[in-house]
Amino acid sequence: MRLRGVDVAVYDPSPSAQEILDAVMIDAVAAWDALGLATDQVGTLTIVDSIAEADSGAGLVQESVPERLDIKHSTLAAIDAAAPVDALIASSTSGYKPTDLATSMGHPERLVVAHPFNPVYLLPLVEIVGGDQTSLGSIDRAMETYRLLGMHPLHVRKEIDAFIADRLLEAVWREALWLVNDGIATTEEIDDAIRYGFGLRWAQMGTFETYRIAGGEGGMRHFMAQFGPALKWPWTKLMDTPELTDELIDTIADQSDAQAGDRSIRDLAQERDRNLVAILSALEGVGSGAGQTLANLRSLQSS
Amino acid sequence: MRLRGVDVAVYDPSPSAQEILDAVMIDAVAAWDALGLATDQVGTLTIVDSIAEADSGAGLVQESVPERLDIKHSTLAAIDAAAPVDALIASSTSGYKPTDLATSMGHPERLVVAHPFNPVYLLPLVEIVGGDQTSLGSIDRAMETYRLLGMHPLHVRKEIDAFIADRLLEAVWREALWLVNDGIATTEEIDDAIRYGFGLRWAQMGTFETYRIAGGEGGMRHFMAQFGPALKWPWTKLMDTPELTDELIDTIADQSDAQAGDRSIRDLAQERDRNLVAILSALEGVGSGAGQTLANLRSLQSS
């Protein structure tokens, strides 16, 4: 938001809110500078003392409290009561359906889910989801708002738990836990299988279009005929949920520690951001996908 | 292989083998040129008339026949009989265990799975898997061979069907089929959810290290405590395999056609390659992951 000159008020009851926010903003501004985006005319960022103060005069209120339905309900009720009647209210939830979130609100027609992805200051995607009572106008407004903020809003037309991206992520996460649980691979080996292989494909083309190419001139129908039967092969553990035993958690935490070596969380985040900046710039150069979103943001800034 | 000056003999009984090979090599050389790799001193590529002719004097034989166990068995038996006794034999299978592949071979100790990823001329990953009878020397030799060819060999220490990467890909594929089957999203929307979001992360950092950052200073243990319980949420269809009905196949094929618009398979492949070249160059610039493999290949070429 700040990149588009929007002033932001933040309410966060955590005593370390300012410190965390400062650290994130340093990384965000560094990444934007590296992308050559204008960071000299950004909006203000102010920490305030209450939901009411944060919402006063707001056009868009983004709720990002922990993923517990009771906390979501009380927070959304407070936002609904405090925000101007024409404000759009968006939840960052990665799992709850907007219909289930809206039950505590007097004006549920203005609630949407707007689910972004970390690091939110670099990844363009935001999933926009409406509930039973969300108005079509609110969906349109959310799509337009996030587009004008320089992101890539994707309208999830039917609400389901976890929406689209997190359903796919959850599938990989479960399978990855099985691989560690069964001693097939370590966290580092699994990460390498991703980033040296299909992860590179997915930065620029999704699973269906990639497989369309694999099908050759016969396209997707040929691919499905050729590889569809593999679905029936008994090679996956997906039918079951791995038990999150203390032992499995210890194994993963220890392997992850070994994988990180002496790189702190901050080091890793900065390494990630530097890589993402390079990838986004490269994709802008060839005019593809996320690179187009970046080019769009750049043109919004200069207009 | 050709990039490292290795001469390759190909046996492929298909009448269009030469045509297909020529088309792929044009794209491959274009991509290598764009990466600034030396393509003026590449090895020769010759189509020959039999397995025996292809294997004569070979140091490495790569089997890439269709994924049917009976065809794999007969082909590997023929290769085993024809190849020099000190040749390494590698299967490109994406699913079968090497132990199950080796049953027709007189010298199973020299068989490894070496599973590459499309486009093989750009993606560094190759999964190296040994079976019950594979010798440790053959594993070492495979790791060294593919490294010298400029790829990123990953030793899968325990053989399982589909190894590591395809287990993860299979998980995403199933979940994606559910999303289409249930009318939640189209093939294009699912692809966009990938390439504008987590796909960008995975081009440079895998799922575990990404989540480690999300866990903050508490690292992986904190992340598991916070998000582990979501595993129990009933939001996924993964417990079941979608029925590949004609209707579902039609839906996917039609959506994929609409998504591709007037772009042919060749157009899509060239778009993909141009994007991958840009991403790989960018990652080489920041010295990360697949970019390191590319830098390594460049230094192998100039040494």
Quick structural gist:
Two copies of one chain form a homodimer. Chain A is 51% helix and 11% strand. By secondary structure, chain A is of the alpha/beta class.
Overview of this structure, please?
2 copies of one chain form a homodimer. The mean pLDDT of chain A is 91. Chain A starts with 7 loop residues before the first strand and ends with a helix. The first copy, chain A, has helices at residues 17-34, 51-55, 69-82, 98-101, 136-148, 165-181, 187-202, 207-214, 219-227, 246-260, 265-285, 289-302; strands spanning 8-11, 45-48, 60-63, 88-91, 111-116, 125-130, 152-156. The longest helix of chain A is centred in the C-terminal third of the chain and has 21 residues, at 265-285. Chain A is globular. In chain A, helix 5 (136-148) links the parallel strand 6 (125-130) and strand 7 (152-156). In chain A, helix 1 (17-34) runs parallel beside helix 11 and helix 8 (207-214) packs across helix 9. In chain A, the strands form 2 sheets. In chain A, strands 3-4-5-6-7 form a 5-stranded mixed β-sheet, with helices on both faces. In chain A, strands 1-2 form a two-stranded parallel sheet. Chain A folds into 2 domains: 2-156, Rossmann fold, CATH 3.40.50; 165-286, N-(1-d-carboxylethyl)-l-norvaline Dehydrogenase, domain 2. Chain A is α/β, with parallel strands linked by helices and 303 residues long. Chains A and B meet through strand 7, helix 6, helix 7, helix 8 and helix 9 of A and strand 7, helix 6, helix 7, helix 8 and helix 9 of B.
